[in-house]
Amino acid sequence: MKNIKxxxxxxxxxxxxxxxxxxxxxxxxxxVSILVTAPCASAFAQxxxxxxMIQAGLPAGQSVDxxxxxxxxxxxxxxxxxxxxxxxxxxxxxxxxxxxxxxxTLVPQLTVALLGDMGVNIGSVPALxxxxxxxxxxxxxxxxxxxxxxxxxxxxxxxxxxxxNMDPDAGELADRSLWDEGIPALILNYNLSGSNTRTATxxxxxxxxxxxxxxxxxxxxxxxxxxxxxxxxxxxxxxxGNESDDSTSDFAVWDTAxxxxxxxxxxxxTLGESSTGADVFDSFSMRGVKLETNSEMYSFSQRGFAxxxxxxxxxxxxxxxxQNGNVIYQTYVAPGAFRLSSLNQAGTAGALVVTVKEAxxxxxxxxxxxxxxxxxxxxxHLEYAFAAGQYSQGGSYQNTGQTPLFATGTLxxxxxxxxTAYGGLLTAENYLAGVVGTGVxxxxxxxxxxxxxxxxxxxxxxxxxxxxxxSGESFRVKYSKSxxxxxxxxxxxxxxxxxxxxxxxxxxxxxxxxxxxxxxxxRRSSWQGTVSQSFRQWGSLYLTTxxxxxxxxxxxxxxxxxxxxxxxxxxxxxxxxxQDYTSNSGNSGVGEQQNRMVSVSLNIPLQLFTDGAMQxxxxxxxxxxxxxxxxxxxxxxxxxxxxxxSLGYSVNESWGNxxxxxxxxxxxxxxxxxxxxQAGYNRDKYQQxxxxxxxxxxxxxxxxxxxxxTLPDSMALVRAPGASGVKLMGTTNIWTDNRGYAxxxxxxxxxxxxxxxxxxxxxxxxEISEAGKRVYPTRGAVVLADYNVQQGQQILLVLRYQGxxxxxxxxxxxxxxxxxxxxxxxxxxxxxxxxxGLSDRGVLKVNWGQSADRQCTVNFTLPPPxxxxxxxxxxxxxxxxxxx
Length: 884
Fold this sequence. Notes:
By secondary structure, this protein is mainly β. The protein is built from four helices and 53 strands. The chain has a 24-stranded antiparallel beta barrel. A five-stranded mixed β-sheet has the order 3-2-1-7-6, with no helix packed on it. It is globular and about 105 Å long.
């Protein structure tokens, strides 16, 4: 039997669901049926539950008072652990105190502080302004149109607050008190691959044989809020044949760093090897300390750029903002001027339609065009980055460059009127630079950002007065424009010009020590552009261009790529043209170089010709031709098989002209729950090779070792001891192992994630208290999704006390169980209680009051399943027991 037990056992007092059990209906079941089907005398009549029917079944001197439960939804006042939902979005699980309200209903006592934590804008409610945070509220009538509903059976409190009284950022980020730093853990990602190759040699008839092995490793340690991460690799190769043998090996370690969140600053601290950001200065590798904004700690309505929307409402009106027909924001405003500044960023360009619906039903609209650039921020938002340490030559010390100490800081701040200001400072013993810039959204005219960097450098082979012997400037302009009516998007992602004396930090430190001349080949100017045009059902066209020239050289490079993509009846095709052109290459003596290539590709789903029988299988064709008239063609088939498409495969044949060798390749990849395995075979006229590989992750934690696919940044360790072979819902081919453990990958940081087990996959003798667990990981955390698994026999115990059934409503708790994993149940009117996860022997504590004569103990020994009467269901047996 598979069952998910009600999280509130009290609900089973009134309606006992036996599921697979077979027993005669009790008088309570019959009574409930009568109450449900009996016609009411009038619209205002009330059903009365006659407690004397239960009273008659109790031992002498015992009584039961159920008047509190005569009305639906009523229970005794007190403290209850409750799931709180605000506007249908889960907020938190809290212990709340409930008092009796009208008609004996339960009313929660909410504080002003708790409402604020839920996202209620206290300042928008006049009756709440000025009240202390600890002020207790037992009604929400002070908030117009607010509603409150409490479902006792589900222990769920639903609070509905009009959007106009809500903080616009509420609900998207989890409450900070829920952020989980995770459990201590050791993490290891691995990628092992190898190949065996046999190559024929010309003329001799012999062959060269070789093998290579590569291992990539990403170890890590989690301890509290700290995360230690590193990258490692090891490779080895061996070649023999023709009376020669050669072997090499190499091992490297890089990017070793210790990080942690700094919630009070919405930032992240990094100690060790990392890289600086590229928003303001050019990025470079470093060793040291870095503190920068962690954008994930902000809600989507605070990140990036979105225009401020202003307007006027004549009445209490509904304001709706839509983009491309989709509603992205909606709120209610009071009469007069309104200003909306908390829209989620909906792309870097577009047109927003703002519709104001007045109280009398009239509407008026306006369209606001906007364009932004990645560096732009909304008004009042600050992004920061500070770093200090030592310049690093690509992750390892080298003798071919300098590794000076440095310090740098950058700030990006959103200003009013759709503007953003940014700047930074970088100082080192051989370098000093400052940058200042601004970005502005011009609406229909697009968006533009411009900055200037002034730098002074000390070059090894130049003389000059003062500390620095070279200075210069670099000017940069970025432009973006989207024309939604025509489907055209243009990004002139930048024109940059640097004077001859300008060096960035990497230029200065990558000079060859002891050389007689400064490194040549520094870019003088660079121009990049991208234009795309959508033709809707007729496909899309794109064009990218880039041109670079250099100081100290006559070399120029030009790159152009143009392509067209479309699909018809699930058949996709594309045509692409690319050209690289390099003029005089300076001191190399190489003249002009030009590479041109045109290519076409076609992807056809075979299910179109097989009535869906080969769903997921595709025929792939491609052909290319370059400026040397070399033609290369390829014909292949690819697809997937098995459950969840866990097996991917491809077969490909390629051939060409001008002596190009025809080749055949076969590859397969299996995506398992614990690892990914890959194998392939390639062969042509001169060579054949077999390659293979396996990749995955190993998680070591306080409960043991769990194997997984490659471990992501943030994950959940699913712990369901005894529930083996259960699928994690929402994943592709991930199941709990033989101990009931699994890793749920790719969680959203600082937000609610629901980890769910598929209850239909549970073993027959296993139950879980709830199928889903909510987790709220911080960046890099391993959070625990711990399930209360009840494994063992499922029994319907008939309890008798002093010769009579144990009273209705008594609680029965199995002794010796772990806290939080208790096995318990509520006795029905026939003295029966359903319990799951029982061993052959145990002690059951039963009570229906505080006095000694209202408590008893059952020492039970369950009979073997084989002696159960055949008419009973083997997965749920009825056993009588005496309570003493």
